[in-house]
Amino acid sequence: MTKSTNPASWQAIIKQAAKITGQSQPKTSETAYALTFVLAALITQGHAVRWPDLGTFDLSRHKRRKGRNPSTGKPLLIKARNAVRFRAAGALKTAVNQ
Predict the structure, then answer these.
(1) pTM above 0.85?
(2) Model confidence over 11-68: pLDDT tens digits?
(3) Distance (Å, rounded) from C-alpha 61 to C-alpha 55?
(4) Who is most buried in 28, 33, 82, 86, counting CB within 10 A?
(5) Cα(96)–Cα(33) distance, rounded to whole angstroms?
């Protein structure tokens, strides 16, 4: 497998998944969108989502903190925020390093 700097397009992913599952591309796309919606809703609610052999998605809360403007050097406050964190499963790590 060669490394690519271009990410796979949504259409390419749907086409490959449709081929694997034997479903039509529109049905596969509909299922993938529904799955994306459910995952986003669960993560937003604070649930960790464990995907077997892929990894875990969860919410990482960053507190408000002090920082500096890199241009002026003046101190400023960086707002609190939430971010999605992904931790790869062992199976994915193994697959990537083969």
Answers:
(1) no
(2) 999 999 999 999 999 999 999 999 999 999 999 999 999 999 999 999 999 999 999 9
(3) 19
(4) 28
(5) 25
